[in-house]
From TrEMBL:
Record's protein name: Rieske (2Fe-2S) protein
Domain Rieske: 52-151
Organism: Pedobacter frigiditerrae
The keyword Iron-sulfur appears for this protein: yes
Amino-acid biosynthesis in keyword set: no
Taxonomic path: Bacteria, Pseudomonadati, Bacteroidota, Sphingobacteriia, Sphingobacteriales
Keyword terms, alphabetized: 2Fe-2S, Iron, Iron-sulfur, Metal-binding
């Protein structure tokens, strides 16, 4: 009798530990990795209206250069520091959040996780290679002031 109760309580304890681990895991996955505006690193999109800046005096200096900052993937597509010389999209893949990179040689934005591909206007070129389905990328408005490139998340 006592042994049975002990085993039951042990089972319950293990179940609680597993549940706690699952809840913790789910919670962290669901957290919005939105970096602060102007901050470094990639990640998902930020809140609508958030502005993300890049210093063109030291970043995106050459055509084909790209960087992820504040949830925005910035790509230089032409010379000069006009807004039209750049493209800004969400930095994480709509499929499952993989990091997006610019592939200059083939002029596509490609996901590092399942290799989906997109144009600079956000259209899908290739679906994920895991059999899943992605959606078009968000493309953000850009403005240049001095040497500051600003994307406004929408
Ligand atoms: S996460 Fe990008 S294709 Fe799957």
């Amino acid at each position: 009798m006592e042994r049975n109760e002990f085993i039951k309580s042990l089972g319950l304890g293990i179940a609680l530990v597993c549940t706690g681990s699952c809840m913790t895991g789910c919670g962290s996955k669901g957290d919005d990795p939105t970096p602060s505006p102007g901050g470094g690193g990639g990640g998902g999109g930020g809140s609508a209206g958030t502005k993300v800046n890049v210093d063109l005096g030291s970043q995106l200096l050459t055509v084909g250069a790209f960087l992820a900052s504040g949830g925005v993937l910035f790509i230089r597509t032409a010379t000069g520091n006009a807004a039209s010389s750049f493209v800004a999209t969400q930095a994480s893949c709509p499929h499952q959040g993989g990091a997006l990179n610019w592939v200059q040689a083939s002029n596509v934005i490609q996901c590092s996780l399942h290799s989906s591909k997109y144009t600079t206007t956000g259209s899908i070129v290739a679906q994920p290679n895991d059999g899943g389905t992605t959606s078009a990328l968000k493309v953000y408005a850009l403005a240049v002031s001095g040497t500051t490139l600003t994307a406004t998340i929408s």
